[in-house]
Specification:
Blueprint (H helix, E strand, L loop, with lengths): L5 H9 L2 E8 L2 E8 L1 E3 L4 E6 L4 H8 L2 E7 L9 E10 L3 H14 L9 E14 L7 E5 L3
Antiparallel strand pairs: 1-2, 1-5, 3-4, 4-7, 5-6, 6-7, 7-8
């Protein structure tokens, strides 16, 4: 599997909050989650309670989209990632790696009683105005 180019990976790693969009019966919803990024798998890992609206919606429709953005009002510093992918629970064999990745980033989460989730990123579009106004970097998962 190919991983996104270094500029995309570095941007995702530098941040820690994702806005994640789900939908049910054509009604969209967005939530915000702290995430850990697993580069080799190109996964976002986060925790969420099973009673949340976004998790309930994913149970019916696992396709999600989202964004990670640098907050700035300086136009030539605008950076952000938009992505689409599939959200799911980690398998039994993935749980250990996924848990370690999340707790390495957020050690306080050991006190939380929530479930871990993965977003397998399938498509990324990064806007990076530092490379030129409106410059886009595109990545697609192979296969």
């Amino acid at each position: 599997m190919s991983i996104p180019e270094k500029r995309i990976v570095d941007f995702i790693r530098k941040h820690h909050v994702v806005s994640l969009a789900t939908s049910d019966e054509n009604i969209p919803w967005v939530c915000h989650c702290f995430y850990a990024y697993m580069k080799e798998e190109n996964w976002l890992v986060f925790t969420s309670d099973e009673q949340t609206r976004h998790v309930r919606e994913v149970m019916a429709n696992p396709l999600v989209s989202g964004g990670i953005v640098l907050e700035t009002s300086v136009v030539n510093k605008v950076q952000g990632v938009q992505f689409s992918g599939v959200m799911r629970r980690p398998s039994e064999e993935e749980k250990g790696r996924v848990t370690r990745a999340y707790l390495n980033r957020f050690p306080f989460a050991v006190l939380m009683n929530t479930s871990l989730w993965i977003v397998e990123i399938r498509h990324i579009k990064m806007t990076d105005n530092r490379l030129g106004f409106g410059k886009k970097l595109i990545w697609e998962r192979e296969g």
